[in-house]
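Sequence only, no structure available. Ideas?
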Amino acid sequence: MASVSYRLMAIIEIGSTGIRLLVAELFKNGQWQVVDRASKPVSLGRDVFTDGNISRETLLNSIAVLKSYKELINGWGIKDGDVHVIATSALREARNRDMFIDRVFLQTGFTINVVEGIEENRLMYVAVKWALGHDRPQFNRSNSVIIEVGGGSTELMLLRRGKMVAAHSLRLGTILIDQQVRQSFGTPHYLKRYLTECVLNTCESLTKEMDLRHVRTFIVAGSDARFVANRFGLEINKNCWIIGRQVFIDFVDRIENYSVEECVQKLRIPYAEAEGIIPGLLTYKLFLEQTSATEVIVPNASIREGMLITLASGIESDLQEEFFSQIIASAINLGRKYRFDEEHARHVRMLALRLFDELRPIHGLERRSRLFLEIGALLHDIGMFIRSSGHHKHSQYIIANSEIFGLHQDELNIISNVVRYHRKAPPNSTHIAYLALQREERILVLKLAAILRIADALDRGHAQRIRDFTLEIRDDTILIRLSDEQDITMERIGIEEKADLFMNVYGYRVLLA
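Reply:
I predicted one. Tokens follow.
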């Protein structure tokens, strides 16, 4: 029996080189299919990466494109709540982005969501997983790279046996590359030399996270790669191709000296695509040559599909937990980068999550807050890398200025504040980073930091002595009763030092029996 359509959804992506539309039909069984696509070039990236601002001409052009998409969406009868507009690096970096967003809203009614680089990574990861399906099981068994070169940035993910090691949004996009080559050398003929230096320097910095020589699976997203896949790729399913390593390299070698005009003429592609195809493909090739991959996997997917998957089916519990595990894997690798005490960190995490689960009736928090606590517990002492004294402040700084896969900056700000208050003084009127949070976020920070303090106190000596306990909640007291007799003098001192915030937030004294 055919699936019954019950809803239409539209995703619009405002990128550095164009504005793209995807319309999909959703079915009650959770499946979906694309019913319409559109793409029109705009020069947002060229404006922003040259002058820092979006020009009046580009603004008017963008509004005209969006108005035409509005008519198309209205023709499909799509409700306003099912239209989602996202913008990437060009609008993210534009000095006049607020003006642009306001003008677009007033002229079209579209509300633009500017996604961060790390959120682009997340959406691409979701789309790649969907496109691969079960046709490349080695993705979960080998070291992998997922890479997409855009107009303003390159999104790069490193995975070890299917688990996220790191995710980076590199300032290395096709428009930026072209401009920097022209500024540095005065001619585009030095493109390969410039890119080779950039890629080698990037790979050297990535070595601490993963040696690319051990990468066996190389996944390339983006329209440039799909162009090559359509010519030389072997279709492994309707959403994915594979290209032999040498076939890919040979093709890029053959066209790398083409001018834009030659790309238009010989490759038969529009001028807007021809401007970026050589820098994009050359970047992919240079990264590929640093790996041991024997083939290039090209999914027919973009962040638009990632957004659609996220919004259409939500995230099923199994998929959500798998995604959370990738976030945790990325956080652990950040800790290793700064040489954290992993045994202590993992033990405090276990204690903190146990407290969170048993105190649920008291704190009333949901699953994502538990994830924030878990990351905070793992990274609470990461600032020891800088200095032991005041390490809670150093931990806050490192987390707030790092990238953790799947978390955007607002969430990193919450976690960094939780870590900031795992010891010493509670928040006060001079703590700007705390005051900058929304009221609900400040309450969340206090609730999580209070639990983290207790968990950290239970391993005050970093000896992992307390492994099991039960909680007894009395009138105004929470009693932590240990399962076996042992010397817990250090832990008692820790509770006495750190239980004050828990008392102030929840109104309960904490005692260790």
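The CA atoms of residues 262 and 342 lie 55 Å apart.
Hope that gets you unstuck.
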